[in-house]
Predict the 3D structure of the following.
Amino acid sequence: MNREQAKKRIDELNKLTEYYAKKYYDDDDPEISDFEYDMLMVELRNLEKEYPEFIKKESLTQHVGGHVKEGFEKVTHEVPLQSLQDIFDFDELKAFDERVRKVLNEEVSYVVETKIDGLSVSLEYEKGIFVRGATRGNGLVGEDVTENLKTVKHIPKILKEPVTITVRGEVFIGKDDFEKMNFEREQNEEPLFANARNAAAGSLRQLDSSITAKRPLDIFIFNVQKSDDIEFKSHYESLVYLEKLGFNVNPVKVPVKTVDEAIKEIEKIGENRDKLSFGIDGAVIKVDNLKQREILGTTYKVPKWAIAYKYPPEQKQTLLKDIVFQVGRTGVITPLAILEPVRVAGSTISKTTLHNEDFIKEKDLRIGDNVIIQKAGDVIPEVVGVVKKSEKERGEKFKMPHVCPVCGALAVRLEGEAATRCIGIECPAKQLQNIIHFASREAMNILGLGDNIIEDLLNRGMIKNIADLYELKQEDLEKLKKNGKKFAKNLYDSIQNSKSNDLYRLITGIGIRNIGVKAAKTLAKHYKNMDNLMNSSIEELIMIDDLGEIMAKSIYEFFAQEQTKNLIQRLKEYGVNMEVIQEEGTDERFNGMTFVLTGSLENYSRKEAEEIIEKFGGKTSSSVSKKTTYVLAGEDAGSKLDKAQSLGITIITEDEFENMIK
């Protein structure tokens, strides 16, 4: 990898880690496993080490992830709540031990503890009374969650001695409590929590403490942050003292004299991981002597006297009993593995996504195979491989369906995409998103027909598809809201008014894959009415400027479906306009011209300028070429301006553009 490639990858990794950290820390809604996130951080850390000139101060290698949630008071931590450096093998642990011994130049002992999988908090006590509690936040500033923490079992309100002390702990939900909580949510048809850690974090960060009180939160204390009344010589001594005060201290805390003893304890924890009543995401190794810790010091983000060993994802073997298919709201058909139930990382797995056709073929998965399952980071179950048998012993190779398993319409996979999609416009699995799109501002612009209203109409059985909107009567709509006569009249009028929309809006609204507003306008202008468009061939479509082969194929396959033909026929019967509306004295002053916009315009948004150009018969493009007529350049115009100058393209200012449209 050269310097340019390294810089580009570091930029990519910074964006990825920042996004995933926000989902994890701020939203309590992880999108990838801990293991996958850790691997991104390892890659970023290694690249920054090799190319330090590209390190950004906002990189998550330089600070702790997490922000203060709106609605909570900020708490500045007197002693920062730092993160820990992660390692993934024992060679890295031995290297850590060597660094520590080299700095200290004397004997060193450690304490090995479980790394609790929860949300880190600080608890402040004044003369033995609990006065304030806060989340870690970004390590320096957290959220005041005192009232919520008062509802957590095992957080003492009054200590057994009247000491002034600040401690750090991990709020968590035990394995049995988590399964029970998710079972109850499933019975109540509520969305399930992804894992115990995020359930704990989301519960503790509720603005209403009565909600927190209903969640089975617990805590383990693992550190003294600050003490005004007593000094400790060792970390282990401080943990023993915390237990005497009445704190629920991390139950796994083993003092060891050498790194080899630490490795044995880490292996022991890993072997007994399933037997623990709480989830862990690793083991922590800490220098025990507190004076030695002061000598070793810290970086901005992590202490130099502690490190976290992350266990590899737990894997189990089970039978792939079947592959079934789910159709999502956007029409994506997702294969789902039905498994012989197996317990992995604290929960029973009986099914998991197989993502798409490429994923299955890459791993050569077949029904009847013994497969290897893991819960990377104890979050998302996944199939990572297959236990190979001879070809004769195995079932048939996997084939993706060519028709939708829900509605029977054609299922297609477009070039350059991994997903296979149902293109049936009346597929029940897709109706919510179909109708939302149809009613949207850029499509039929049906004012008042928001997402919640559409969902309500579907749930009540008042509509099943787009065409049913035009069967609704005003008195039907009154049922949706109390005292809803005015609402019903306005919505009814809006639906009726949409019948008069121009053809391009209808083409946009019916949701042809890869066809947005711009392409819809091109099609409407070329074909003039819906019948001409429906009867067009792929060859004809490809010949239209700005339409490529993929778009042409999408249009042709969409209109070849009986569902589409039936829908268009119904819309015609309800009086929905199927033709281009020819405005009197249409101004085509930009006919045959192509504009490219670059930089920031003062009086127009990019979209507004494009609409004006198209209104006068012109076209817009995202790139400069010999076919470009004008480049409209605003402030901070970039490389497009340079290219236009090199090609001799006419460049116009915003003032010149305004003169052209007056």
About this structure: The longest strand covers residues 315-327. DSSP finds 24 helices and 22 strands in the chain. The chain has five domains: 3-54, 74-309, 315-393, 411-573, 594-661.
